[in-house]
Amino acid sequence: MFKINKNILIVSAVVIVLAIIIAVNFVLKSDISVPTNNTNSADNSQNIPDIPGENSNSSSNISGQETPTREVPTYSGRPINEVFFGTGFSAPQNIIAKKTEDLNDLKDALEKDQFNFNDWIAVGVTKKFFNDYEGARDAWEYVIVLYPNDALAFENLGNLYALYLHDNSKAEYNYKKAIEKNSLEPSFYIALSDFYRNFLNNNSKAIDTILSGLEKIKDANLFLSIAGLYRDIGDKPNAIKYYEEVLKISPNHSGIQEEINRLSN
Question: Per the confidence metrics, is the pTM higher than 0.85?
Answer without folding.
Answer: no
